[in-house]
Every structure is written in C-alpha cells, then in structure tokens.
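Quick illustration, no need to memorize.
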Amino acid sequence: MRFISTKTHGVMDYLMCLLLIASPWLFNFDAGGWETWIPVAVGVSGILYSLFTDYEMGASRKLSMKTHLWIDGIVGGFLATSPWFFGFADYVYLPHLLFGLAEIAAALTTHLVADDEVATRGDAYHQHRESHL
C-alpha cells in the first residue's frame, strides 16, 4: 500500500541524505574506511538524483518518480548489506542497516506519480470531458 505523498518523500529524501552524510561523525563510526564513506556517498548521490526527480522537491524534473523509487530500493539494499559485503559489520552495522531498510520501506510505500502532477492531470481530464459534454 502506497501512502507516502511524493512531497513528503522529497522532504524525507533531503533530510535522510543530509543525515547519511553526517552519520559517521554523529554516531562515531568515522574510521575512514568503507563504513565512513558509503553513507557519505549514498547521501551525496541521493541529493543529486533527488534534484532531478519529477516530484515537488525536484529542481529539474527529468527522472520519473518510479525510477527514483527503484533507485531508492536498490541503494537501500546496498546500504543495508554493505557492512557484511565490505567486511566492517564487526565494527558497525546498525546505522547502515536501519538507513537501508528505511530507504526500502520508503520506496515501497510512496506514490508513483507526483501529487502535483496527478492534480494537473485530473484537472485537464475534467476540463476535456466537460468541453465535450
């Protein structure tokens, strides 16, 4: 069931990405290896593709919401499994796992089309229909 609006998802994107970038220092796992730089890279890339997403928080609406959500899901899976894949789970794993699962959950529960676009399409549909009555 998809219940998160695209606008809410957009706000969450930017907040989550900023938190990801800061997380090694906020949660004290900044050892300078994969554990540090994976969340930073995921956060920076998330901001970049969010800026190009076709939703209310996008600056240049080139990337479809559906594609954005697919990327979120894939990146979330990568982030969640990275401690074991890159071998730093003995040092830290919980922030990566929780952020990754949150990304996956958001990808599965967010609307597929920007809310402002649905409103525009709906208005155009009703105007078209009324003009032919």
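Residues 6-26 form the longest helix (21 residues).
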